[in-house]
Amino acid sequence: MADRQDVFTPQRRLPPMNQLLDAAGGHKVFPRWPRSAWVDALRAELERLRNDATQAIPGASEIVAQAAEALARAHTAELRRVLNATGIVVHTNLGRAKLAQAAVEAIVEAAGNCTLEFDTETGRRGPRAPGVEALLRQVSGAAAALAVNNNAAALLLALSALAPEGEVIVSRGELIEIGGGFRIPDIIQQGGARLLEVGTTNRTRLADYEAAITPRTRLLLKVHQSNFAMVGFTEETSLTALSALARARELVLLNDLGSGNLAPLPGPLALREPSVAESIAAGSDLVAFSGDKLLGGPQAGLLVGRADLIDSLRHHPLLRALRLDKLSLAALEATLRLHTDPMTRAEVPVLRMLGQSIGMLQVRAERLAEAVAGLCAAEIVASIGHAGGGALPGLEIASRALSVSVAGLPADELARRLRAHRPAVVGRIAAGRVLLDMLTLADDELAEVVGAVRAAVA
Ligand SMILES: *Cc1c(COP(=O)(O)O)cnc(C)c1O
Predict the structure, then answer these.
(1) Is 96 close to ligand 1, i.e. is its CB under 6 Å away?
(2) Which of 62, 81, 136, 223 is within CB 3.0–4.6 Å of 256 for a Cys-Cys bond?
(3) pLDDT mean over 426-437
(4) φ and ψ at 373, to 5 degrees?
(5) pTM score
């Protein structure tokens, strides 16, 4: 009998659910889960304790802590907001470009029913998002434009429509991997075209292109070396020269520009990344670029160029599978509109970040240092930021970071706790310290960063 008592007694001492929920409500590290999620997690934890007679019954706060850990594990796969303190402006793993407020508002407005393919004047079906195409023509100087899902889709569509069964000529110096294992040669093959590589890794001349042309050649592809830089004994053929060759041999010149610089970039960056308008002016028949790199908009692939070519892409069956959705179109239109006026361009976060002076970054670092002073050790240090997103490779952007540390807490554990916060704060670790880079944080995010630090050191 005594044994049976021992097995059953602990059950009666399990704290009641309402007491656990009260404790969960005041939980320091993970206060944000909805009540229903807490109830499920606590119930599972109680169930586990009920079935485990070997374990002493813990107190309410310990049960809540166990449930909080289970909740955190269950929610790691969830898409949630991140405060970017990495110093990488266009961070591919963090959703690339942070959208402008106007773009966010446009997404909200389009989220219900909207004029996606509707002409309010006639009350009939209209073209799909004509505003985006008009703005793309305006910012690029091209005759026609089309928006699809991403730049890889733009290339796939262009190659499928313009060079099916034909040959595409590319320099060996431009057969790049975009990232995540996606390579330009694979996209060309997927489009049904045959790839002709010309030149060498470091030097490709006009004569190399010329010699490779056959009656089956349809297209010359020039790919911007966006995610690496070649230095030393290098030579590439200019767009102007390729354009003249394409015209003489009745080929299409397609320029994959990658990062989508609509120019001008702020300050010293202005000269370092070719712009879409420059590519059109130099004689590209079509230019393809991303919407979520230097352009600072949503994920999208933009094509601008000759009206007859855009028209044939518009009528290709693949377009239906690659077209852009209403939310992205709304955000893209709002972002492009900001680009059309020098007064509003700085509202695009990517351009605002790239245009900051070191003085502004220093002031932001000082403000944050002051706000966390009572919570942890903090020191302002010089830092190097990057544009990221395959733009301006190798360019180092002078920045300031706040180096934070807590006695007795390893840097990787502090960094982990900051990432576990809602919103997550993602910095980087250098020399045993957590660095929060000011280049990619905004002033109106500092209070939330302080909140994350407070929770992490509690
Ligand atoms: C980034 C990039 C791409 C791929 O663009 P996505 O929008 O990510 O599909 C293609 N080409 C170049 C040169 C790039 O830099």
Answers:
(1) no
(2) 223
(3) 95
(4) -50, -40
(5) 0.86
